[in-house]
Amino acid sequence: MPMDTLTQTEKKPRRKQEDRTSDARARIIEATVRCLYKVGYSGVSTAMIAKEAGVSRGNIFYHFGTYAELMVAVRDAVYQEERQLIEDIRARVGTRAYLDQVPRYVLAGMRREPAIAVDEIMLAARSDPELSEKLRQTEKTIEQRAVEDFAALYAELGLEPPHNLAILSRVAVAAFRGLAIAELVQGEDAKIDECIEYLIRLLQVSETIGPIGE
Known about the structure:
Helix content: over 70%
Number of strands: 0
Largest sheet: none
Strand content: under 5%
């Protein structure tokens, strides 16, 4: 049937502008993650990201304003994805089983390409004042949400969360991130499985330690 004979209801509806914008942002973020993982922060350029995403360089800055804002958007997107993956695991295995094995689940997340891309961003913030400033607030918000999420899981089981939950969370994430990086560099020599078993024991013991200063 010729296109000009189609009625208005038969024509394919045009996508809303906000949908197109959302899709473009997602493509750019996903492309940035792939580029960061492949070549590291220092090797990435807006031209490389644009080519990977199938957009123009101008389109990147239209959606994100600055390079630092793009990197912060990547950090937030990766966090949201990780949070959803964690919720999917918890729904599948149950809250009690999830809490018992949470170190292994977190480490598995740290080994994924998006998490390695975030590591590249965080290391780069050391020499990028704008990125450092923007990332600091993002990390603060993520830490707060993580603690609130874990506290809610304990409450769901009728348990009191460890009094030092915020510190435990920060130490654990830093340790898991370090192990994931060590594995990238050292491979099997990093002995990740042995390290994670020992770390789990340390975290279990640390839950019983009183507040600092007591």
